[in-house]
Design brief:
Elements lengths: L8 H14 L18 E5 L2 E9 L7 E4 L2 E5 L9 E11 L5 E11 L5 E9 L6 E9 L18 E2 L6 E2 L2 E6 L12 H6 L3 E6 L17 H7 L7 E5 L11 H10 L4 E5 L8 H14 L3 E4 L1 H5 L14 H24 L7
Parallel strand pairs: 11-12, 11-13, 13-14, 14-15
Antiparallel strand pairs: 1-2, 2-7, 3-4, 5-6, 5-8, 6-9, 8-10
Amino acid sequence: MAARTPRRLTALLGAALAVGVAAGLPGVGAAAPAPDEGQGTVDRQGRSMAWRLSYRLPAPVVPPTSTGTTPVATTPAAAPPTAIPMRWVAYGGSRTTTRLRRLAGGQVALTPVGGVVTFSRRVQVPTAGPMSGGFCAEFDLTALGIAEPARSCPTGPTASRSDLPARVPEVTVIGDSVGTGLDYVSGGRAAATGRWSALFDLKVCRRLVAPPCPPNPPSALSVIQSMPGSLGDIVVIHVGYNDAGATYDIARVMAALKARGVRRAVWVNLQGIAPFAPGVNAAVRRAASRYRWLQVADWNAFSAGRPWFVADRDHLTPSGAYALAGFYRSEIARAIRALRDQPGDSAR
């Protein structure tokens, strides 16, 4: 069988079961999936990434015993296997790389407990900066009477991000001077992104697509189009305090995000008293009705009436900066959950 790379290993295993059902084999089925089945969760921990996988085994395939063309009996279900072989690989590198380097790999025999096998591993990543990386696994299910599915794991010294169904969540945050408040408090950026792999581009006087005011940073659109490496599955946009609603072209930005492979845009609206807030926030609401992969992060409602702002009612006090960091973190977590609930869902 030719190798292919699915977005989730469960898709492969489900396909193998579907073949058994189509062939009329009795005893084919699967219990309810375990959380994050087949993909697991990957966390960044300093210079390492840690993976935990939980996979519920499908029921054994029990072929019928037949005489001629008439089945006369079925073979009793075999005892559950005492171990399930699994091959795993880990790849990693910088967010700016186009190919990830093989870091580790091996084979293990997992003991089922209640029909579920679990596996965890931590590997070192050769970068202290924003990392890209993840894991892949393939199971040998022949002990269950199921032909091993098409190979899901790369075997070479390098791999693309799309080869790895379990990856460190990658986030890019693009903001203007309000977002730079994170840099005026200790640990502001880390508080905003936790154990995910995050790239920040926060610039004073940034606009969404229009030419900037001095000191003339690139627009959010330009950053999206030109940033090297991976933007990740999730991009946070918190820009608009220097924009008028009429020039706030969300459609151009969404098209650029889609072209870069981004699967979820987290769009932070503006604190309501800001001069351009009504027009910008209205544009964000309209866009959310058009793009189902646009997640509105309602900073306006979250911050209403709070003493988090300096005299201009836009920029943040230290307590406001920490509040914004926590707000970013909760919205990014919501975006990650949404992607896990819709594996492989393309932006549209």
